[in-house]
């Protein structure tokens, strides 16, 4: 009897949450001072720049051209690397660790700069017998890693709230 009540309660709560249109609100934790930014990058059309712009817009951050008194988010550099993690018996690469590191900085309206970094690692099983499929899979993994790094940078922007408020 108690078990069926628990199941009924879980099903009812899941139904209520999914039926009412409840969802997380993006960008609610970002300080008001950082809701309007100028975004700079050494290569504005690189994949990491596009991923960062997409995440900023998904979090309701307005991007404007460089003007006085507006904070600036700048991607200083990013590095990608892959290292062999394991090998097959015949000496061919079996598994790789893909690494992405992004270094950025936020320059506040008062001129103060705060560095932020994001690091993402993934493992990738590299089977040379299915090279075309693995190439596509590898690109999907890299895209996902760029999106995750962009989300990490935005999370670190939220952590700047105390420093922004104190200044």
UniProtKB/TrEMBL annotation:
The keyword Chaperone does not apply. The keyword Electron transport does not apply. Residues 1-18 form the signal peptide. It is a lipid-anchor. Keywords: Cell outer membrane, Lipoprotein, Membrane, Palmitate, Signal. Its main location: membrane. Transmembrane segments: none annotated. Coiled coil: none annotated. Component of the lipopolysaccharide transport and assembly complex. Interacts with LptD. This is LPS-assembly lipoprotein LptE. The gene is lptE.
